[in-house]
Specification:
6-stranded mixed beta sheet, alpha/beta
Length: 454
């Protein structure tokens, strides 16, 4: 039995290893199922190339990951795979929310709703016959997308998933780094947890993980860090978790073990810590253990908007975390979103002013994307539109309070200019100035977006 696991090629501003596919691969191989990973995003492959590789490798099935922005590419690839008489399975957040439409458009044999490790393994061991495997659906047991679906059984103990780096060599993923900055190359990535216990209305994580968090043991993380350093020559590690500090005891124990094991390479929490969880004890522990950067999700500089999106944090929480990082010489970055419910020209300016007047070193200004599975998707009664997926996260999908798309795009560009085009920012960023982050910045600043209706 042999399965190809595929990430399709779509435009991106950051390139991180396909950890989701690698964990699938490691789990499948634990049960004797051979796999290959085809990372078309990394190697710039088009869909016909992927299909030819699958045919040449004589695989029994192709599994494709699918986020909403990738949907058209995934559908095209699935149709090509089926033309070659190869089984096709699609997983990810989009088919989890829209399993029926995904099956119709893609002609795939199955979709997997929820996490894929156990369901795909059971399906493969059963020769791709679905005898009521939880979370696995085909057109034989779905009538429409209004039908409720069960999520696949998930791996309760994440320590049971083997390490992945023999599947995807970390040194091959050094361009377009997560978090924009880095100290040393080559760097590697670690996911210590899955899920988020919060319910921000614009995020689909609470739908996919049902508001629960599973986290690997700190001992397991230390072993992986040592493997990355000793076997793969990694000189920096980036944690990709939504909030690795969600339990104070956990992050303190991890920091202590890093020190006790004499792990001295720099590391960062690039996907974010929750500002409300950050206190001086945590920041001191991070600093002592070698963490040089953490980012926080701020979203807006207006407290009323933060309430509307159920952020459960406020401007005071953000200032506290930023100032603690600054006090202890840790680079603090932040994510902002323009176009949230309640947004006006005035609130966008508040966000710009907050970022500019703070002690942040990095600011990432994004445009709201309405995500399937999020509460906001349901609240707005939003409909999936395949016609404009290429502008995900750069084309406003929702226009609050009579704002125009141009208003929101111009606010994003103004924010980037006002934050970064200052002499003090040049000197703050000087130690981290590398070609990839600089190109990321200019790509964001000067990207031309065709505004719908223009």
């Amino acid at each position: 039995m042999k399965i190809a696991l595929v990430r399709v090629h779509t435009p991106v501003l950051q390139l991180v290893p396909p950890i989701n596919l690698a964990t699938l691969s490691a789990y499948l191989e634990k049960y004797g199922i051979q796999t290959i990973i085809i990372d078309a995003l990394k190697y710039g492959m088009d869909n016909p190339e992927i299909a030819e590789i699958a045919l040449k490798e004589n695989v029994d099935a192709v599994g494709i990951g699918c986020m909403t922005a990738e949907y058209n590419k995934v559908v095209e690839l699935s149709n090509l795979i089926k033309e070659k008489k190869i089984k096709c399975i699609i997983g990810g957040i989009h088919p989890t929310v829209f399993p029926y439409q995904t099956l119709i458009d893609s002609k795939a044999d199955f979709v997997i709703c929820g996490e894929g490790e156990i369901a795909l393994t059971q399906l493969a061991l059963n020769n791709f016959e679905n005898n009521n495997i939880k979370g696995v659906y085909s057109l034989s047991n779905l009538k429409d997308d209004k039908q409720s679906v069960d999520f696949a059984e998930f791996v309760a103990n994440l320590d049971e998933i083997p390490f992945i780096w023999d599947k995807i060599q970390p040194k091959k993923y050094q361009s377009k780094p997560s978090g924009q900055i880095y100290k040393k190359m080559p760097f590697g990535y670690i996911m210590a947890s899955r899920g988020c216990s919060y319910n921000c209305t614009f995020c689909a994580s609470s739908y996919l993980y049902k508001g629960k968090v599973r986290i690997r043991s700190v001992e397991n993380i230390i072993i992986e860090m040592k493997e990355l350093i000793n076997l793969y020559g990694v000189k920096e590690i980036k944690f990709l978790d939504d909030n690795i500090a969600f339990k104070k005891d956990y992050i303190l124990n991890l920091c202590n073990l890093i020190v006790d094991n004499n792990i001295t390479i720099p590391w960062a929490c690039t996907s974010g810590l929750r500002a409300k969880d950050v206190d001086e004890e945590i920041v001191l522990a991070l600093k002592k253990a070698g963490c040089y950067n953490f980012n926080i999700g701020i979203e807006s500089g207006n407290n009323e908007i933060l309430k509307k999106v159920n952020k459960q944090e406020n401007i005071e929480d953000f200032n506290k975390a930023i100032n603690l990082a600054y006090k202890h010489n840790i680079v603090c970055g932040a994510f902002f979103v323009f176009g949230l419910p309640g947004e006006t020209k005035e609130t966008m300016q508040e966000t710009i002013n907050f970022a500019k007047n703070s002690k942040l070193t990095i600011a990432m200004f994004n445009i709201l994307e309405i995500l399937p599975g999020s509460k906001l998707w349901n609240d707005l009664n939003y409909k999936f539109d395949r016609s404009n997926l290429e502008n995900s996260y750069s084309q406003p999908r929702y226009l609050p309070n009579n704002l125009t798309a141009k208003d929101i795009i111009n606010a994003q560009k103004q924010a980037l200019r006002n934050f970064y085009f200052r002499p003090k920012m040049f000197f703050k960023l000087l130690p981290f100035i590398k070609l990839s982050p600089v190109m990321y910045f200019f790509e964001r600043l000067f990207k031309k977006v065709k505004i719908k209706g223009d």
